[in-house]
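Sorry to interrupt, but I need a hand with the structure work. Could you write out one complete protein record for me, on any chain you like? Just paste the record in under my message, thanks.

. . .
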Amino acid sequence: MERIYLDHAATSPVHPDAAKAMMEVLTKTFGNPSSIHSFGRDARRIIDEARTVIADTMNGGFNDIIFTGSGTEADNLAIFGTARLKKNGHIITTAVEHHAVLHACEALEKEGFDVTYLPVDETGVVSAADVKSALRDDTFLVSVMYGNNETGAIQPIKEIGILLQDHPAVFHVDAVQAYGILPIDVKELHVDFLAVSGHKINGPKGIGVLYAKSGVPLSPFLFGGEQERKRRPGTENTAAIAGMAAAASVAVQSMEERTNHYRELKSLFIETLKKHNVAFSRNGKVDESLAHVLNLFFPGTDVEAFLVNLDMEGIAASSGSACTAGSIEPSHVLTAMFGADSGKLRSSIRFSFGLYNTKEQIVQAAEKTANIVKRLS
């Protein structure tokens, strides 16, 4: 039985170019990048080249790129690194953020900060007008994700960035799911901080990046050495940095081709389900969402049994929510979109497409999905 991986929004296979770049470093360049001898300088050169590559992918500056251990750390560095400069104040975010942002904001609430969690409409999109209405004189941080990891909903980042030009609050964007899928220009978007992750773009796990606009204050929340211009201590993971840079180059250069392919796969999956007369609806706007994410509601099914049946058929998909102690918690994203009493919370599946997926795989996966729906509903 062929196993079909349709959970690329959770993590993605490493691209051969990224693996090659990492292996080169792992076998030939072991020096500490902070050392002044030739071994250290060799490692530093690789990091500098990677920093240039990644900065170029988002039109940022060389010194604006901070390497972190993950997208989660990048989000936390932006949020806590901004809050630590304040004794109190107001933060604006949305109800559909990744937990890297939500849990960070909840932690700050416990410290006395005031947080506004903006609602979204039934397509999962926040209103820029709501952001504007929520702004206060003491608002110092606005954090809105670019593309949602569960539904693929794309937020009006540029519109929000423009309206914040008249307010002193800094603008943080979690672009972990959008990076490599949507064109990103940090200057055009008017963002101050932007977080991305290696393993979502066919790079390695354990590496992330925070774009931090030059001149915007940021306090480190880890302490140690003076790496990353004193903003993120710890010896840099040279191999992972090289791998992420290679993956980022491929992602940006192939973006149009890949996203067109993903949209085709998404349409093919939907059309195959329709062909088999399966009852389903889409969560969010399929045509106005991240190309690789498809979140579907199957009435009368149970998400846990559904995922088990998919796995037994060799198909990897997700509910898009956290699995804890053997039970799947209702998605906070779908709850924000449809309400806590909606049946969609227990009957929705996320399929996400990526490297190595073919049309033949998608047809096969959709046909098996249709059979499972008929069996469970």
Summary: DSSP finds 13 helices and 14 strands in the chain.
